[in-house]
């Protein structure tokens, strides 16, 4: 009876332990090529705010991360083992997916994403398996072309191609308006100069002076000849 009671207590403890364990998510294998990069998915809900988390190599332990490779305080990365590791998603939105660049064969294996939810046995754990294959010539050429294309897109993305022609034609428009205003001002000046009162008075004075000179000029004398006949 005593032995049966002990087994009952042990079974109850095992059931209670398994019930208290948080759900463990296992992600399907992620496949990458040597020299390339991969994304290991991991997200959590931020309805109660951001939470500290870590990534580690191997299975998830009872707490923390084994062989830790990166860690955050919930809002930014506070430590990482190498520059090859990064969290490119929005940490404030709960996207803590791990990016690994410059893959090598030694990167193959199991990775643990642990979101350290406050409370006992509340941590969210995601286990991801990574398989790194040897890169072939075709895949290397494709990866190189893709990398160059991405670099070109990242370089040209900030340029607004629709506004560029407007920037080129704006000086021409300004110069055209300036010339139009200058021509209008010149025409207005000529019109005003032609109809200026001083010019009309000058013309009138010239006409009066000519008339006066003509009046003062001596008129030809009329000479009368009288013929006397002998009476």
UniProtKB/TrEMBL annotation:
A single GO cellular-component term from the record reads:
membrane
What name does the UniProt record give this protein?
Hepatitis A virus cellular receptor 1 homolog isoform X2
List residues traversing the bilayer. Answer: 170-191
- The leader peptide range reads 1-25
Q: Please state the gene responsible for encoding this protein.
A: LOC100488536
Q: Which PANTHER family match?
A: HEPATITIS A VIRUS CELLULAR RECEPTOR 1 HOMOLOG ISOFORM X1, T-CELL IMMUNOGLOBULIN AND MUCIN DOMAIN-CONTAINING PROTEIN 4
- Gene3D superfamilies in the cross-refs: Immunoglobulins (2.60.40.10)
The protein's matches in InterPro entries, at most eight in alphabetical order, are given as:
Ig-like_dom (IPR007110), Ig-like_dom_sf (IPR036179), Ig-like_fold (IPR013783), Ig_sub (IPR003599), Ig_V-set (IPR013106)
Extract the Pfam families matched here. V-set
Question: Where in or outside the cell is it found?
Answer: Membrane
Q: How does it sit in the membrane?
A: Single-pass type I membrane protein
Check the record and name the SUPFAM superfamilies matching this protein. Immunoglobulin (SSF48726)
**Organism listed in the record:** Xenopus tropicalis (Western clawed frog)
> Which residues does the UniProt record annotate as the domain Ig-like?
22-129
Q: Which UniProt keywords apply?
A: Disulfide bond, Glycoprotein, Immunoglobulin domain, Membrane, Receptor, Signal, Transmembrane, Transmembrane helix
**Family affiliation:** Belongs to the immunoglobulin superfamily. TIM family.
């Amino acid at each position: 009876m005593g032995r049966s009671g002990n087994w009952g207590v042990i079974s109850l403890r095992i059931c209670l332990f398994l019930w208290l364990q948080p759900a463990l998510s296992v992600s399907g294998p992620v496949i990458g090529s040597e020299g390339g990069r991969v994304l290991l998915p991991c997200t959590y809900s931020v309805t109660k705010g951001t939470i500290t988390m870590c990534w580690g190599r191997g299975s998830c332990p009872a707490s923390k991360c084994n062989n830790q490779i990166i860690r955050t305080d919930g809002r930014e990365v506070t430590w990482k083992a190498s520059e090859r590791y990064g969290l490119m998603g929005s940490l404030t939105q709960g996207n803590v997916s791990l990016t690994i660049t410059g893959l090598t064969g030694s990167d193959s294996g199991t990775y643990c994403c642990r979101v350290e939810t406050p409370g006992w046995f509340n941590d969210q754990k995601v286990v991801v398996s990574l398989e790194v294959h040897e890169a072939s010539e075709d895949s290397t050429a494709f990866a190189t072309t893709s990398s160059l294309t991405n670099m070109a897109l990242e370089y040209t993305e900030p340029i607004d191609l629709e506004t560029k022609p407007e920037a080129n034609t704006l000086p021409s428009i300004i110069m055209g308006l300036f010339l139009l205003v200058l021509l209008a001002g010149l025409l207005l000046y000529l019109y005003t100069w032609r109809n200026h009162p001083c010019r009309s008075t000058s013309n009138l004075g010239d006409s009066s002076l000519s008339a006066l000179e003509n009046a003062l000029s001596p008129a030809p004398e009329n000479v009368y000849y009288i013929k006397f006949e002998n009476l």
